[in-house]
Write a structure and sequence with these properties.
It is built from 3 helices and 14 strands. The chain has helices at about 1-25, 40-45, 50-55, and strands at about 25-30, 70-75, 145, 150, 155, 160-165, 170, 175-180, 190-195, 200-210, 215-220, 225, 240-245, 245-250.
Length: about 260
Amino acid sequence: MQRDALNIWMIILIVCLTIVVSCAPPGIYHTVQPGQTLYSIAKTYGIEEGRLARINHVGDPTQLKVNQKLYIPGATQLRKVPVTVSSSTQPQVHNPASNTAAERPRQPQPSKNTGTAKTPAETSRPATTSGPVKGFFIWPVKGKLLNKFGAQGQKVYKGIEIAVPSGTPVVAAASGKVIYSGNAISGYGNLVILEHSDSFFSVYGYNQKNLVKMNDHVGQGEKIALSGAPPSGQSARLHFEIRKGKSAVDPILYLP
């Protein structure tokens, strides 16, 4: 009797598993190709970008790697995803705590710095002619410039740090699309990343609170966050970067 009961339960379990497997939504794996972004992949397959990121444990959408496999739930066949970013300019965000002198960037440095977030008149124009002209971006906050772009002793800053009281409104430096809003990237606290035209990105870190979410479209000067302090416990400030794809560029050269 016990053996018969055990056999019956085994049959029930097998049937249930069969039903679960047969009812599971189909899906495929898409292999990331050069120039493809999480946004373009999600749009091509008709899935919400945030959901695609969660399913594939993508904490930072700017750090997709070529040949990385993404699971696309509900898809039954591969689709051709358009190339939206040059393969040599796909962005990467680096942990500011890991910056060392060995990572010194090759971008030109401004000749002098006044010590405030007001750009000195003698600052040179950007060397690149393919990107936005000086003044395409605006200052996200106004305050004292604590750390400028480039090598500072044993550290190399990928952006600038501006001293402002916690809770100060942070505005979008240029119109764009929110491709990241969260706190999963170590060293930045609450972080917002905007995508702009011509493969440019702007990064806003150490926020007390983010006011935008992924896929939001914001206009230049629109409030996107409230400033805070670094996770390391330093004084209140905003971490701000401008990137041309993978390359961090000196924000001073692009600000008015």
